[in-house]
Design goal:
The protein has 3 domains: 1-42, no CATH class; 44-158, Sandwich (Immunoglobulin-like), CATH 2.60.40.650; 174-300, Immunoglobulin-like. It is 6% helix and 44% strand. It contains 4 helices and 21 strands.
């Protein structure tokens, strides 16, 4: 991810990005180049970044400090109490950071914004409530005009000593590890469930109403979102969930959460997630019978209209 505000001229104009890979013996290969156009002068949405955990970094303990910062273009502002900033772990909102702290580098780089002298904030993250392994974290910011955008989505690793008798939140975040379903053929053999449609909510607005998805002739409900967007799927009586990759049955995507009690699948695809993802959710009926709901999520690149 790139915060284009740090490019020359405040990230306004045409730029060429070149990617170069260097291996362990120093051999370099140019992967390619892209030409991009940036127009931060006319931007209206909040922007910012997460500082900790670092991209691919590690977080531990019951009070890990998640630092970040956020600004929004004038004349709008971000409330100083942090009430319109949200922290998400594995696509689930977990609280608001403390906001309105001074950072000299941000104040110097971005003078003249309503929050220039209080752009920084932090959140105490209790990592012991999650399974060890890779997770995602991101912030969203909403300004005084209602503009909202995601900030700093990234992957990080939680690593805590395992305690006997407690697997932390293993049952919640790895519900797809339940026994009985082991391969695609077992999933295929299950009947499709048409009792209730899958409902979907896209974006970060908490008060948005979910919309029903109508399955196609193959029983697949399809939904499209842009990269780094957020999706919630509302399911009826979910028992487990999986992702199908080729002819393999795998766990649900990294950074997603299947809440079996609420019947909600939440996902903020991290950087690099593009294309089609075939998900399947197994439902358990009142009589104990199993059926499936198939959902294909297509993630498309973000597009920004070019001003003329």
């Amino acid at each position: 991810m790139m915060l284009t505000n740090f490019l020359p001229n405040g990230g306004n104009g045409t730029f060429i990005i070149k990617a170069i890979a260097t291996d362990v013996v120093g051999k370099q290969t140019t992967l390619g180049t892209k030409t991009i156009y940036c127009d931060n002068a006319h931007a209206v949405k909040p922007f910012g970044a997460i500082d900790t955990p670092t991209q691919g970094g590690t977080a531990t303990g019951s009070s890990f400090v998640n630092w970040g910062w956020a600004l929004t273009p004038q004349p709008r502002y971000i409330p100083t109490d942090g009430s319109t900033l949200n922290v998400y772990v594995d696509a689930v909102p977990i609280g608001h950071p403390s906001y309105n702290l001074y950072r000299a580098d941000i104040a110097t780089l971005f003078p003249g914004y309503a929050n220039s002298n209080g752009a920084s904030g932090y959140f105490h993250l209790d990592t012991t409530g999650y399974a060890n392994g890779v997770h995602t974290i991101s912030w969203t910011a909403r300004d005084s005009a209602g503009n909202i955008d995601g900030i700093g989505s990234r992957f990080f690793t939680i690593s805590n000593p395992r305690k006997s008798g407690s697997m932390m939140q293993e049952a919640k975040v790895t519900a797809n590890k339940r026994p009985s379903i082991h391969n695609v053929s077992q999933i295929t053999a299950l009947p499709d469930s048409y009792t209730e449609p899958v409902r979907v909510k896209k974006g970060f607005k908490a008060d948005a109403e979910p919309m029903s998805l109508v399955p196609d002739a193959g029983g697949i409900s399809r939904v499209e979102i842009s990269e780094l967007g957020r999706i919630e799927l509302y399911l009826s009586n979910p028992w487990s969930g999986y992702m199908i990759v080729g002819n393999r049955l795998t766990q649900l995507p990294v950074g997603s959460t299947l809440d079996l009690k609420k019947g909600i699948f939440s996902w903020i695809p991290g950087p690099g997630f593009l294309g089609k993802y075939n998900l399947v959710f197994v439902e358990k009926g009142p009589d104990g019978s199993l059926s499936k709901k198939k959902v294909t999520v297509t993630i498309v690149p973000q597009t920004v209209p070019r001003r003329k």
